[in-house]
Design goal:
Elements: E1 4-7, H1 9-13, H2 22-30, E2 37-40, H3 46-56, E3 62-64, E4 69-71, E5 78-81, H4 86-98, E6 103-106, E7 110-113, H5 118-126, E8 137-140, H6 144-150, E9 155-159, H7 164-174, E10 179-185, E11 188-193, H8 198-209, E12 216-220, H9 226-231, E13 234-237, H10 243-248, E14 251-252, H11 260-268
Parallel strand pairs: 1-2, 1-12, 7-8, 12-13, 13-14
Antiparallel strand pairs: 3-4, 4-5, 6-7, 6-9, 9-11, 10-11
Helix pairs in contact: 2-11, 4-6
Length: 272
């Protein structure tokens, strides 16, 4: 029997309007009566995941920043974290700046960048719609070195547009010793410490919850979900997922726009 359902957010649980349908909410709420917990595994910063957790009534710890940190959404306590070392972080930034690419840094609650555009500009506006307990801080910085001295940075996102320059930047970033990297959105390449991903974080979460890995169902759609789908007892790729994601999955659901997560949950737990 499955005891934990864990889902990616963007392109998976959320529709293209970044919402969870009422039908999906009902299916999630029914899981408890079937002896299963539900939680999120996302590349997003913790407060952006917490806002959806509150909407869905999730009290199970959240995997954020693509597996670099696990946080209790009830107490806001960090239960597990793998922050980037200062040495690695500054090397990532050096490469981003050499290619003239926008980048941003994530700690638990704050997004830092050297200029107000793209992701940080989006979150600066997005946070205005969130409840006070889920506010995302944004900060324009002059010195990344000082940021690493004052807080733990869990990941660095570099703007990625599939151009030749972006491809070359990715190759340079992937050569940095002691790192892991993957595309988390169509426009973002994330760099984390080596062996940091949603799959390794899922193992830690299972240990915290006393759940066996074969009792887990995981949903995802993109490159940053691969390890999680392969680690879980039953990995489900969305109908809108990349082909290479579908290839590693045990099952392919309908698309995020067609409530694929809800349909699969109802089928697995034979909900009526």
């Amino acid at each position: 029997m499955f005891k934990l359902i864990i889902s990616d957010m963007d392109g998976t649980l959320l529709n293209d309007q970044k919402q969870v349908s009422e039908y999906t909410k009902k299916a999630i709420h029914k899981l408890e009566s079937h002896g299963a917990k539900f939680t999120l595994a996302t590349g997003r910063i913790y407060p952006a995941a917490k806002s959806y957790a509150q909407e869905l009534g999730i009290v199970t710890p959240l995997i954020c920043c693509n597996g670099a940190v696990i946080v209790d959404p009830v107490t806001d306590e960090v239960l597990y974290g793998r922050p980037l070392s200062k040495e690695v972080g500054l090397k990532v930034i050096e490469i981003c700046e050499a290619y003239g690419v926008y980048y941003h840094l994530y700690d638990k609650n704050t997004i830092y960048s050297n200029r107000m555009e793209k992701s940080i500009a989006y979150y600066a506006e997005f946070t205005k719609s969130l409840p006070e307990s889920c506010q995302i801080r944004t900060e324009i910085i002059e010195s990344a070195s000082e940021v690493f001295d004052k807080t733990e940075i869990y990941k660095i996102g570099a703007y990625y547009d599939n151009s030749e320059r972006a491809m070359d930047m990715r190759k340079a970033l992937e050569k940095i010793p002691g790192t892991s990297g993957f595309k988390s959105l169509e426009t973002m390449f994330d760099v984390l410490m080596k062996d940091t991903n949603k799959g390794t974080a899922l193992k830690h979460l299972c240990s915290l919850l006393g759940v066996e890995i074969n009792e887990v169902v995981a949903f995802g759609d993109n490159e940053n979900d691969l390890e999680m789908l392969q680690t879980a007892g039953y990995g489900i790729a969305m109908g809108n997922a990349e082909d290479f994601v579908k290839e590693v999955a045990d099952h392919v659901a309908d698309t995020n726009e067609a409530d694929g997560v809800r349909q699969a949950i109802e089928s697995l737990f034979k909900m009526v």
